[in-house]
Amino acid sequence: MKSIVEAVFTYAKETPDKLCVADAGSSYTYLEYSGKISKIARLLIEKAVGAGDKVVVKCTQNVDYLALGLGIQLIGAVFVPVEKSCSEEKLMHIAEICRAKLAFTDKTGDSTDEVLLLITDFIRESETLEEFAFLPENFPGNNEICEILFSTGTTGKEKGIEITNENNIALAENVIYGVEMKDDNVELIPSPMNHSHGLRRYYANMYKGASVIVQNGVMNAKLLFNLMDKYKVNSIDLVPTALSVLLKLSKDKFGEYNEILRYIQLGSAPLMEGDKNKVKSLLPNTRLYNFYGSTESGCICIYDFNSGKDKPNCIGRPTHNAEIFMVDENRKTVLSSKENTGLLASRGGQNSPGYFEDEEETKLAMEHGVVYSKDEAYFDEDGDIILLGRKNDVINVGGNKVSPEEIENEVLKIVGIKDCGCIGVKDAVKGEVPKLFVVMEAGREPDIKYIKTVLMDKMEAFKVPQFIEIIDKIPRTFNGKILRRELE
């Protein structure tokens, strides 16, 4: 099978009555889902969309949206998803950048642009077509671009990360082998389906012939657990912020699924120490995976932190198709260690071929099939990868490399502290020293001296923050990453 969409059609023949995808309002077997995709593909062709054309789609986090994405790929066109909160102006801006043939939104606006269509109207029209209205003579090939995932940064120009069918298959295999996915897997995915994290877990299940239940976030915890019970969910994909919200909303409800949940996949941002300990206590028999990767390289490292050997800052070992090595700033391979760290680089079929029409940015991030990250890391004596953080975030205290996440994880164990963030600040003697920002729980009085005393017992003296400041909120991205540059 050379593409994810081909896998769906293959399983439509092999296991036609097996559950493929479902959301809060609908469910489809593999046969039904492939038929839905086929109708969508036919209507796209009728609207003059062809191979290589770009189609921008606003995420609606349901089966219609997922089917539209695969319908676009079925005819060899390029699926360009954007976030569900995206304004029509931003959507049309992305459409202009990639010269999209069509763009789909979920709201009727004032726009009279002929390329902008309403998703619900389009799906309704496609459903009037005959069964399997379109079947290709050949499914899309390995090296064809099937997706462009645009970065969601608020500053600077947008970067469109190109993804081939081969990339998505390699990424699917990385997930499948990494979590030991079985044929009868039923995975709940409330993670945003315009983001690489959620999409790639969905694709992995489709490539395996398993089942996916998609939900629009975790704020409706009652619906989430109802879907888990209804479809006998045995695995979940979450971003760390979603896990944090779910643990607060559901209290100890997760514990009832200890013998049911095979695994939970986490990734896209570091997991808060308190949440990690809480989920481990509730689900002692569940594999808890932390994936490391990027949109450019996908899930390239995996670590089960519920396996009994939870190492600080460990991201595990390379996934199925990934080769990981460390390089210096000149991209020369280095033999890494705690004393001789490097920048993490990866090679493998999962790596993006480059950025859409941007050779300059492509050369800055990748070369000869290798994606070069800005993450400082090393292999320890066991062969595990220890991640210190972004090179510019790692604090260099008189030559000692300090991970801000290591400090934050210890701080969050202190009773009364709700959140924290750590950065390096200039120091005339040591070059840099750690500065800690702390958010206290409601009703708790800060005690800076006590925080320092606790940390002195937990880590080397050079890691203990020189400065501690109490603030109201730690700035974070939607998926939980600390915006360190906003801390001063």
| Helix fraction bin | 25-40%
Instruction: Please name the CATH topology of the largest domain.
Output: Rossmann fold
The amount of beta strand, in percent, is 25-35%
CATH architecture of the largest domain: 3-Layer(aba) Sandwich
Mean pLDDT: 93
CA gyration radius, whole angstroms: 23 Å
Distance between the termini: 51 Å
How many domains in all?
2
Name the CATH superfamily assignment of the largest domain: ANL, N-terminal domain
Annotation, overall tally of beta strands: 27
Largest sheet: 15 strands, mixed
Structural class: alpha/beta
Shape: globular
Tally of individual helices:
13
Question: Keyphrases for this structure?
Answer:
Rossmann fold; 2 domains; alpha/beta; 488 residues; 13 helices
Write the layout of secondary structure elements.
Blueprint: H1 4-14, E1 19-22, E2 27-29, H2 30-46, E3 54-58, H3 63-74, E4 78-82, H4 88-97, E5 102-105, E6 116-118, H5 119-126, E7 145-150, E8 160-164, H6 165-179, E9 186-189, H7 196-208, E10 211-214, H8 221-231, E11 235-238, H9 240-250, E12 263-267, H10 273-282, E13 287-294, E14 298-304, E15 314-318, E16 323-327, E17 333-334, E18 342-347, E19 354-355, H11 359-365, E20 366-367, E21 370-379, E22 385-390, E23 395-397, E24 400-402, H12 404-411, E25 417-427, E26 431-440, H13 448-458, E27 467-470
Parallel strand pairs: 1-10, 3-4, 3-5, 5-6, 9-10, 9-11, 11-12, 12-13, 26-27
Antiparallel strand pairs: 1-2, 7-8, 8-19, 13-14, 14-15, 15-22, 16-17, 16-18, 18-21, 20-21, 21-22, 23-24, 25-26
Helix pairs in contact: 1-2, 1-7, 2-3, 2-5, 6-7
